[in-house]
Design a protein that fits this description.
The protein is α/β, with parallel strands linked by helices and about 550 residues long. The chain contains 23 helices and five strands.
Length: about 550
């Protein structure tokens, strides 16, 4: 006899993750990466550059520009958030740190919305485990909480989330509002009015963050899924058609807003599809370890593919993956699939065998332990010179880097490593089986390595990924950094010279207006047409220390006035 659901979960297996442990875990993942560093190349410093220009009144709020250039994303809200934060922050907070504060809350919103989205999907009768003949199965609420805990762990475990979720870019805003929209549709059955508000906010936020087309696709798929969702549920509120109507109403507002602001942009027509091998490699590492669990969910729940707990996250994943294939920013488009992919991964947990769970544990234990040991060994080499080779490699890759010791970073990293060792001991011990245990080590290992990188390696990473060393080396060659013309610099480089060098950067003209000129090396033939280099004297070819292929040439005006 075929079971109505492949999930067989006893009451003891549906215990939720202790809340204190969950909050500390999220804190350890969210905060590192936002504090103690400069803006990094290139999307991070570019996004900050637009915010910086808005905050100091050098750009229009309805059309952000950086030295006259519009942003890559047709977004407004992310730049507004960073600019507002800089204007409201006290003077003792650095502008780049102030700009990151709203993005910290966006990452928290992503985690929270994903948890609640998975929770309300797991409350569906189709998603519930098999009822035992003599009782003892998990209650609907306990089961949904345990599945939601697993979904949150699956999201944090995704390797592609770490860097992009800690940058001041529209990508993080799109991720947060995608997760909010996902929650809005998932909760429409049980909390229709609250879900409608969340969905409207999510879709509007996604439109204002540069993703109007994806917002409409997410909503249209949600309407169809809700119309087909006619499974009887005593806890459900409103008729399926009314719930779909609420989603339709919530969709009208962002659609009108996108039309009014002119945010509709078709980015597919001139895009060459990515090579299959490159795309496959991106899908495999970026979404690891959620994607194999999601595939297992589709197989084990194949008789319930039309049910909302499978169909809704599958639709969100499909939209994001197709967008990844047909748009240039493939990795940032794939980022939007992670909340829904984590939801699919969570529903694999109650169908796992002990052998499958053990395989995940041992792989995670070996992989992340090796990564953590490697990070510690390189840090010890930088501090003590033993072993010598890692320190020599760092000196070769980042010439001019001077290492420093931070007691606070060392203590945090040491405590995190001890916590990892305790988790490994707990996971390999004999404890009652709970359905989220299989994702404890993958998620904790990812968080551990991210935290170690953002504490022990942060000085070296900051030196290697920041434009500050390049800007400081250029500024040393100037008598008084101030007005500077530029030719061929990237948006990221322009933002760096404006912020780190406090320079008045202008576009180069045939008639020089500044005593200094910065030109991207190597000089392109078009540069000789744009300016007359005979009016300039070359001062130096300045290399970015950690990148031998990124140089700028500094010129002094030959006839200064």
């Amino acid at each position: 006899m075929n079971q109505p659901t492949p999930a067989i979960v006893a009451h003891d297996a549906a215990r939720r993750l202790p809340r204190v442990a969950l909050y500390l875990f999220c804190l350890a993942y969210v905060v590192p990466g936002f504090l103690g560093r400069e803006p990094w190349k290139s999307a991070d410093i570019t996004g900050f550059g637009y915010m910086f220009e808005l905050a100091r009144g050098s750009s229009s709020w309805m059309s952000p520009t950086l030295l006259g250039q519009p942003p890559e994303f047709d977004a407004l809200l992310p730049y507004w958030l960073g600019a507002w934060a800089m204007k409201l922050a006290p003077a003792w907070i650095a502008p780049d740190l102030a700009a990151r504060i709203p993005f910290i809350f966006l990452l928290v919103l992503t985690l929270t919305a994903t948890w609640y989205g998975v929770y309300y999907l797991a409350r569906s009768p189709q998603a519930q485990p098999v009822q035992f003949a003599f009782g003892g199965e998990a209650s609907p609420a306990d089961y949904a909480r345990a599945i939601a805990d697993g979904g949150l762990l699956a999201l944090v475990a995704c390797l592609g989330l770490a860097q992009f979720s800690h940058e001041t870019t529209p990508s993080l805003a799109q991720l947060a509002f995608t997760a909010t929209s996902f929650f809005g549709i998932a909760a429409m059955r049980y909390r229709p009015w609250q879900a409608c508000i969340a969905l409207t906010a999510g879709l509007v936020g996604l439109v204002m963050s540069g993703g109007p087309s994806m917002a409409m696709l997410f909503a249209l798929g949600g309407i169809l899924i809700l119309l087909l969702d006619r499974h009887p549920d005593p806890a459900a509120q409103l008729h399926p058609a009314l719930r779909a109507g609420l989603v339709a109403i919530a969709t009208v507002i962002p659609a009108v807003l996108a039309t009014w602001l002119g945010l509709w942009q078709w980015r597919i027509g001139n895009t060459i599809p990515h090579e299959a091998q490159t795309l496959l490699r991106l899908l495999v590492w970026f979404t690891w370890p959620a994607w194999p669990l999601a595939l297992w969910t589709l197989w084990r729940w194949r008789l319930q593919l039309a049910s909302r707990h499978v169909a809704l996250p599958l639709w969100f994943v499909a939209v994001a993956v197709v967008t990844t294939i047909v748009t240039p920013s493939s990795d940032r488009s794939l980022l939007l699939a992670l909340p829904a992919l984590a939801a699919l991964a969570a529903f694999a947990l109650p169908t796992f065998s002990r052998s499958g769970s053990a395989l995940i544990d041992w792989f995670s234990l070996l992989f992340f332990s090796v990564c953590a040991i490697t990070i510690w060994v390189i840090w010890l080499s930088l501090q003590t010179g033993i072993p010598a080779k890692p320190a020599a490699n760092v000196a070769r890759l980042a010439p001019g880097f001077v290492n420093s010791f931070s007691l606070t970073a060392f203590i945090v990293a040491l405590l995190a490593t001890i916590a990892w060792a305790w988790l490994v001991r707990w996971r390999t011990g004999r404890h009652p089986q709970v359905i989220w245990k299989s994702l404890v080590l993958p998620a904790s290992g990812t968080a551990l390595c991210w935290l170690l990188l953002m504490t022990l390696w942060l000085p070296a990473l900051d030196y290697a990924r920041s434009y500050a060393p390049l800007v400081h080396n250029v500024a040393k060659l100037m008598d008084m950094p101030g007005c500077v013309e530029e030719l061929g610099l990237t948006r990221a480089q322009v933002a760096a010279f404006m912020y780190h060098g406090n320079m008045d950067v202008r576009q180069a003209d045939v008639a020089p207006s500044c005593p200094w000129l910065l030109v991207a090396a190597p000089i392109q033939p078009a540069a000789h047409i744009s300016i007359d280099l005979r009016r300039w004297l070359e001062v130096a070819n300045v290399r970015r220390p950690s990148d031998k292929d990124e140089n700028v040439i500094l010129y002094r005006r030959a006839d200064p006035k």
